[in-house]
């Protein structure tokens, strides 16, 4: 003869495996990274007590305003991300949850990722220098440019490096500053021919720029929608695709005439 279980007892027995599963899921590491706005650095200033841009072989000019390279900070490839972290990231406006493989190559350790980012940064710096000197029509063999941004790696500061080099060597070409005295932030890779490419985490980078006082943000054209999603109404978003186009847009913005492509 079978004994009937009361309804509360039956529900408790059925719920037990679910509760156990949720408990395990809560502590199990998940294949995600959680990113948030990182620090910004004025490439016309200093980092770790040293000039971000150091130029020799040509006279430089004093600059005003700021060109802020922006970053994001993400949990490392060796870090454990749990269900609670993911849920917090999904519901927080200043965080983003991304597949770990989209942030770090599969199987890479923190040390390998750092080495990879340093190599990308070096390539980006070389391209930024070549693009800037080519824009100015100056021979690269006579001018040496040393770029450093502390522990920041990756290629996303390329556009800002090129603009900083141009500002220090020539300004806007008519005696003024590239920035027009403003605090301008931005992101974007750049190749030696001056083509600007997209990067990741733009919505978070816009938040970092706003936090640190930037009023203008330079956005790779393909990522305008991401920037608009988090930018305050007071921030001007300029859509960029080439170094020459960026310089034209900044000059026109300062003059108050001519085209300034915005997001």
From TrEMBL:
Domain of life: Bacteria
Region (Disordered): 40-60
Domain Lon proteolytic: 152-239
InterPro entries: Lon_proteolytic (IPR008269), Lon_Prtase (IPR027065), Ribosomal_Su5_D2-typ_SF (IPR020568), Ribsml_uS5_D2-typ_fold_subgr (IPR014721)
Protein name: Lon proteolytic domain-containing protein
TM regions (residue ranges): none
UniProt cross-references to PANTHER family, sorted A to Z: ATP DEPENDENT LON PROTEASE FAMILY MEMBER
Pfam family, one: Lon_C
Gene3D superfamilies, A to Z: 3.30.230.10
